[in-house]
Amino acid sequence: MKKKVFTVVSTLALCTSLAMPTYAAGNHPGTPEQQNYNSSGFTDYEQLGKKLEKIEQSSQGRVEVEVVGQSNNGRDIHQARVGNGDRVILIESEIHGNEKTGTEAILNLLQHLGSSNSPDVKALLEEVTLVTLPKMNPDASELDRRGNAMSWEEVLQDFPQLEGADGPTWNHYYSENGATLQGDDYSSQPGFDVNRDFNPDLDYTPEPEDVPGSSSEPGWYITPEAQTVRDVYKGLEDEFGKVDVFVDLHHQGLYYVEGTSDPVTLSLSGQFVPDPSSEAGAKYAEYEDNYDYDFSRQLNLAAYDALQSMGSSPFDNITLYSQGLDLPGTALGSFALNGSGTVLFEVTGQTQSMGQKKKGMLVNAVETGLQAIIEGVADGSVNELDPERYEDIPETSYRPGI
After folding, report:
1. Range of the domain at 193
2. Weakest-pLDDT range from 2-6, 36-40, 92-96, 98-102
3. If you placed Cys at 67, which of 76, 199, 277, 326 could pair as Cys (CB 3.0 to 4.6 Å)?
4. Is residue 5 part of a domain?
């Protein structure tokens, strides 16, 4: 039988300038540094609700929008869903509130998938169910920073069993002895890196012996934002049996293609914990039957091949994010162990001198990669990619020529 081929036409999103991220010495992938951006021109919290409402209305019910949770400060966390297929793709953006290009890419895709009457789009939506969380950390987004807005005292109110634990947890940002942590003002509004608050045990409840933890240990689901994503994931598991694909959209700093002085446009990755069948991953042995690294590599290849085929900046200089990570406290690590194919997008930090056109092209780069994944899952072509080709993608370097 002839394979279906789907083509989704992307919309070029035009956005205003961002400031170059600043990096502190000694940090490494998996514990990224604070990134300082000027977020003007990107969709803020109030605008997001209005845009999603408009997309839902114009789609005549094809796109379904609902509130699936609240942030710690009571802001709604929106979910937008389109499609009726058995293969589930979950995409989230702005788990770090100053990493915003993914939100624009998601809105573009929702607008197109919700309004297009092309046979290709209709056929695609019969094969996949696309679930998106366009701004899953709205407090951080409004503060234009990485961490959410939540104190350790608020955690203790929610989880009194942690009283007396060696807290706060390692991913808590606050001002200590007059020093500002993470390069931002957390003195009046401390917060957590929500993307270190996940746990592969989706039913885990915080225990004092697990605090403060570390980057190579699971998180706790102490933030309402991480709890919301976990609950969405579990709900999809109950409905469909599994979440086939999980994609997390981020920004990174100025990195280079390994061995060159070429700045990276976008990094991809499908590896966030060691293979549970390996010696290094033996502590995750209970998840061995779920873990599918080959599928994650195929998904990343689908995005990489699509970006490479575009042929010119910003679609060149696509690299692999640092490999060999052990980050079970990230959403990507936790959901990979639960059987989802995983993809990380890390868009380069943009400078104010890049201008509106450049930033719009970078949003389009994310959109291009996402639509390639969606199409590849819908028509099954992603399963035909040789996962070993993933290892041939150039890696990222911190300094030119290294």
Report:
1. 45-397
2. 2-6
3. 76
4. no
